[in-house]
Amino acid sequence: MNPDRKEYHQIGWHVLLCVIVLLLLFPIVFAVSNSLKTLNEAYQTVMSIIPHNPTLDNYLHVFKRLNFLKITLNTFFIALCVTVFKTVTSILAAYAFVSYDWKGKGILYFILISTIFIPFSVTMIPNYLTVSSLGLNDTLLGVILPQFADATGILLIRQSMKTIPKSILEVAGMENSSGLKTLRDVVIPLIKPAVISTGIIFFINSWNEYVWPVLVLKSRENYTLSLALQMYISSEGGTEFTIAMAVSVLTMFVPLTLYLIFQKYIISTFTASGIKG
Amino acid sequence: MKDIILENVCKAYGGAQVVKNLNLTVSEGERLILLGPSGCGKSTTLRMIAGLEEITSGKLYMGEQLSNHVASGKRNVAMVFQNYALFPHMTVEENITYGLKVNKYPKTEIEQRLSDVLEMLELTALCKRKPKDLSGGQRQRVALARAIVKRSDFLLLDEPLSNLDAQLRQHARKELVKIHDKYRQTFVYVTHDQIEAMTVGDKIALMYEGSLKMVDTPKNVYHKPANVFTAKFIGSPSCNVASVNREENCLLFGAQRLALPECWMEQVKGRDRLYFGIRPEHIRLGNLPADGALIATIKYIEDYGNRMGVYFDVEDHEMIAVCDDNAPCPGQTVYFLPDFEKIHLFDYDTSDSIGYPSNLTRSDLNELVYQYKFA
Q1: Which of A99, A101, A160, A176 should we substitute to test contact with B (largest number of B Cβ atoms within 10 Å)?
Q2: Among A165, A176, A181, whose Cβ lies nearest the Cβ of B83?
Q3: pTM
Q4: Using CB atoms within 10 A as the burial measure, which of A230, B31, B57, B290 is most buried?
Q5: Average pLDDT for runs of 10 along chain A of length 277
Q6: Which residues pair with B222 in a beta bridge?
Q7: Counting beta carbons within 10 angstroms of the beta carbon of residue B359, is it exposed (0 to 12), middle (13 to 18) or buried (19 or more)?
Q8: Which CATH number fits domain B4-228: 1.10.10.10, 3.40.50.300, 3.40.1280.10, 1.10.940.10?
């Protein structure tokens, strides 16, 4: 390809990527813009990006009318617990699959990974019945309990662990380091990007989760942010569209910040190459 | 006694037998080289000694203790891996002391041992660097330092110099021998490089297809190979081996006859067919006929810089000789005499050496050979 054609080719790609980025950014800009408008202005100029008379009323309303701090803490608590449990169980399971040889390993791994493809609607009822029978309905623990482990996490972390040369684990073994010590001192530091990005994915998924909390949580004091947001877009109070936008913006604040802080790990996990000793 | 003894050790993966009935003793403080071509089972043997592979059958004794089922961390072994296997996230210092910390050595002792080993291997200036900031030679030294700092009874090395360039390798093997002379652990070293084997080892164990072919000193492995495989594997260019018939005191190369000196008669008695072996460096070629010399035709010449490799045919047998200077030209007819002190004869059925005469001396014939050169 001659240099001119190469340049046009690159410009073409850049234009295409810019369009995709704009399309992806539009809902966020739309939410931020409308959260700064009055309800009247929003109805008249819903697609206009810059508000005529920017106002923080919607945000003040959220803080006044909702117990916003409590709701945020509920969401944070659930997301944190789910993230910690899923990450820890994923690491331990992946380590067992990678560094030990035992009978039935292949079959068990296959079954475990198959569970990724079971739709939530299939497990929803059994999980609900289990949580109810344990008396955990309308509790945060009830939301957390069925999310202790996750096959996607095992898959991601196992893939990352497999890039560690076997000889590195063997050296640790020859130094008389126990399995857990090797995991702590050698394996986890080497797969840190994968652990962090898997954790972030768990956290964001849990933060945004709606269906499962709506089934388990009944009282408003236990609500998560997704449920609070739902109050403003459902028939219950769905006319307050600008307030819903304000809640949306507040909801995405934490996951977005986390992503911005840890983006280098997330990107490196998906572009990772092997580890050399 | 810190010996390593393998008794009838076998290793099989499914149906594939990769190590067959291995019997080997490595005496305390000795440097044993496991040598052989790729896939001969030498690394598997080393890994069985290290406790990284299970032994299918047979017994492994380390320091008089049956060690088949002793975990690798409890065998008191240190190992240097081919890819060095340094922990990428740790500094040189942390890599070297990891084992000592895991085994809860006192802090002062860790520091003492660390500074000793850093000094000995000239790593002091690099101790805060991570492996990715080191060259291949430096990484190799760190891997060695990590093995030495343990002061274990057994030191195992799996092709530790194979990732270094030729010059560095030469330097590293000299250093390795020097360091081992200081600590004298029982030392097992895997390589496929015969120069490394000859220069580092007190003893060489040559393996092929999972079996031991010869265990002896480097000198004997080279000068008195126990079988055709050993003769051909050791030395470069490879040893010439030709299958010949015998009549009386003569070996028959097609229609030509090569008279053996009297001293060989005891060995060849009762054998009508033999393998005749001669190293390329022990062949003399001349352009004048001599008594008993075979007639050969030069096929082609390889120039090694300091020497010439001369390929020639004696009847149907292709051979190679190494000449220092004036080499003949392709197509030329020459006269070939072996250095009879240096020939090897092997049994035709078993390929094993038929032995060497006890009164092997330089014959008159050989005197002639030494004078025999191209003008």
Answers
A1: A176
A2: A165
A3: 0.82
A4: B31
A5: 76 93 92 88 82 87 84 93 96 94 92 92 93 93 92 93 93 92 95 90 91 90 86 64 87 86 77 54
A6: none
A7: exposed
A8: 3.40.50.300
